[in-house]
Amino acid sequence: MAGTGTPAQGTQTQGRGGGYSYNLMVMVGRLTRDPDLRYTPNGAAVAHFTLAVDRRYTNQAGERQTDFIDVECWQKLAESASQYLTKGRLVLVQGEVHIDNYQTQDGQARRSVRVRASTWQFMEPQRDRAPGGAEQAGAAAGAGRARRERSAPGDETTPFAGDEEAGSEEDVPF
């Protein structure tokens, strides 16, 4: 069986010996910086940010440890992340774990781990920034709504080819 599922559902593949594996990551945390939006030479939008995610348990000293997870978004999801997400915002991110192995210039083997997001969602109301840096709590027009645009980083020229579920811009609720 070939890989099945959409990015929002994760990826299910059949491994050696008939066993199955499933790649889906769901996490809630705060952005450590504003998303960095760039475009590939083919014009595909890609945004990167880091999410600070507290572990569920404490260490022997009673302190919670925090993991810093690199996240990337593609296409419309990247553009909406760049437009709406800011440092400190609490968000839920769902996606797939991607691991890249590479060698440094001096020949050392390295590994990088990131989550390729398929959706994100606000987990608290947006805070409006007033002049002078003061924050006021306010309900955002899109607070709590998931960003579910499809992304296809492997094929930037036709990102939604064969995806009948992908909606048009008219389907976006804002």
List the helices and strands and how they pair.
Elements: E1 11-14, E2 20-23, E3 25-31, E4 36-39, E5 45-58, E6 64-74, H1 75-84, E7 90-103, E8 109-122, E9 127-129, E10 135-137, E11 146-147
Parallel strand pairs: 6-8
Antiparallel strand pairs: 1-2, 3-5, 3-7, 4-5, 5-6, 7-8, 8-11, 9-10
Can you walk me through this structure?
- The protein has 174 residues and is mainly β.
- The chain has one domain: Nucleic acid-binding proteins (OB fold (Dihydrolipoamide Acetyltransferase, E2P), Beta Barrel), CATH 2.40.50.
- Helix content is 6%, strand content 46%.
- The strands form 3 sheets. The protein has a 5-stranded mixed barrel with strand order 3-5-6-8-7. Strands 1-2 form a two-stranded antiparallel sheet. It has a two-stranded antiparallel sheet with strand order 9-10.
- The chain is globular and about 50 Å long.
- The model is unreliable at 129-174 (pLDDT under 50).
Keywords:
mainly beta, globular, five-stranded mixed barrel, 1 helix, OB fold (Dihydrolipoamide Acetyltransferase, E2P), single chain, 6% helix, two-stranded antiparallel ribbon, 174 residues
Compute the average pLDDT.
76
Instruction: Spell out the CATH superfamily.
Output: Nucleic acid-binding proteins
> Which structural class matches the secondary elements?
mainly beta
The Rg value, from CA coordinates, equals: 18 Å
CATH architecture: Beta Barrel
Total beta strands: 11
What is the CATH class designation? Mainly Beta
Largest sheet: 5 strands, mixed, barrel
Task: Please bin the fraction of helical residues.
Answer: under 10%
Helical region count? 1
Low-confidence stretches: 129-174
- C-alpha termini separation: 38 Å
